[in-house]
Amino acid sequence: MIFLAIRYLMERKRQTILTLLGVFFGTMAYVSVSGFFMGFQGFMVQQLVNNAPQIHIEARQDYLFSHTLDESFFGKEAIALWVSPPAGVEGYMEVQSPQSWYKRLDADSRVEAYSPTLSTAALFTSGKISVAANMIGCHPEQHSKVTTIADYMIVGKFTDIGVGGNRLIMGDELMKRLGLGMNQTVMVSVGTNRAVPFKVVGRFYSGSRGLDLQSFASLDDVQRVNQTPKQINEIGVRIKDYTEATAFARSWSKLAPERVESWADQNVNILSVFAIQNALKISMVLTVLIVAGFGIYNILNMTVTQKRQDIAILRALGYDTFDVVMLFFSQGLIVGVVGAFFGLIAGYLFCLWLQTIPFMNASPSNPQGHLHIAITVSIYIQGLALALLSASIASILPARAAGKMTPIDIIRQGG
Amino acid sequence: MGIIASHVGKEFGEPSVRVLTDISLEIKDGEFVSLAGRSGAGKSTLLYILSSLDNATEGQIEISGKDITKMPDEELYRFRNQQMGFVFQFHYLIAELTAIQNVLMPARKYNEEIKRQARAEMLLDQFGLLNKKDRYPRQLSGGEQQRLAIARSLIMEPKYLFADEPTGALDTVNAETVMNILRDCSVKDGMTVLMVTHDPDFAAMAPRQIRLADGEIVFDNQNPAALKPEVKKT
Q1: For residues B29 and B53, is the Cβ–Cβ distance under 8 A?
Q2: A405/A333 same-domain check
Q3: Of A310, A317, A411, which has the smallest distance from its Cβ to B106's Cβ?
Q4: Best residue in A314, A409, A411 to probe B by mutation, most B CBs within 10 Å?
Q5: Residue of B nearest to A10 (CA)
Q6: Whether A96 and A235 share a structural domain
Q7: Residue after which a domain boundary falls, among A257, A287, A309
Q8: pLDDT: is B142 or A413 the higher one?
Q9: Which whole-number Å values give the CA distances from A158 to A132, A167, A206, B55, in the listed order?
Q10: Do B92 and A408 touch (CB under 8 A)?
Q11: B13 contacts B6 by C-beta, under 8 angstroms
Q12: Which pick of A269, A288, A345, B104 has the fewest CB atoms within 10 Å?
């Protein structure tokens, strides 16, 4: 019956092309919109998983509420009425047993790198200008394996902070606020401790204001300034497959008192934006495909009416219901397949073109400033599947109606 | 063998109108039968019931010894394809197919279009259409279209040929050509031909003539005894 179906389609070129265009644009829209959103989301995720450690192991600090301590002081049954209820935080300022964490992380083959850090709020003073900013102590070799910070260096190398000697690498924004230049000295004070001079040996620019307001020094230096030798308050971990981060975090958090969180846990807001984007994408694409499906449905319905005589004669010639259903169903399916095929190609070419246009200001994380478009096989398979689904549903209804027609009714009505 | 109808009746629609009443009829293999009658007499309905395209309300029809009213669909479609040819008042050619593709359409059902190619050309040649075999139906005259439709009905070498007003849409010359073809089918090829016509001259060309009125057989020149007494008077 495909033989005749193709004849029908060829004979009505204009209608066929119009319905084909519906599927064509539907598929193309799916491919490009999916590519656009997935590319954007992929880019965002790359930023999230690379700019910061994928898993954070932090000292646990829980807030104290008025009745948090009741049980430990007075037992389960008692009702305590506080004159001055407890407040503040419960827990530790530091990671309790870093050594056992190191052992655990070293033993795990899925861990790519980890970096113990001590970050503290510090007051940077240069002349009369003081700026409060975060100061992070780390082992530069280890830390540059966990985050992309080393890639953002515009002056100096990240490893220049070494293992000691009061050397400091500053974010671009922080340096601008302090009015500092390279190799100048800045006074750093933490809490009520005496200010310590540090020399600026490097400068980085990431494009992210928050990160560019931070500074890095060696772990030993920060521990000394903070007067907390040997202490760390976070271990950043990079694993081989970042999608497993949340599962890791869950299992590790059971092993020790520390709070273990993945990049996904810390960016729930961004991931929820993705979910909204995906919902938007699906509803948009469904609209397009429904319109395309209606195109097929309409034309096929019309064809069935026009071809009543052909249906009658085919039935009289011994063709059965299935043959007649297939005659019309295959027309819709052919339109779907051909439209989807060209739609996929056009969508692919469109994505390639989108990738080349400059769209935003170049930044260290996006040096060309172009759009990020995902071109992955799954998008194309989904696009094809959706187009075929909409074409099938749209064609099966008229085809079934055609299959139900009996030759005698058509002949009796004189065609 | 042949076609045997016993006590066939047909009602139509809601409220029901009786179209055929208690028709019993035997058509032997190789007979050429014309069914005549005024319009509304039920002659076309009888033809379609005898040829399995329509269902009888009651009664039973045997073709080649098989009860077609009880035949499973699959078998019925195959039987229709292989044993029955149909010619209608209108040609019902498929506009998108060339003459020879139209002729071969029945053969396609069971993928026999290559096997039947030679026969198709032979039939087209016989009907003077061979030089037009790649033309589309709209490029043929009315007479040529009807001859093409007959060629299509004969492609599977059917035993039975059913024709409903085959000359209805044709001029006299073309109508005579078609009538001669139908007669040859019976006389030369031994096919059983059942033809509905309201034209008395064409009806008379068939050796056996049956006339219907108000859903009953009122005349059968081969079997006068079968008629009901009260009908015979009219």
Answers
A1: no
A2: yes
A3: A317
A4: A411
A5: B96
A6: yes
A7: A257
A8: B142
A9: 22, 11, 13, 91
A10: no
A11: no
A12: A269
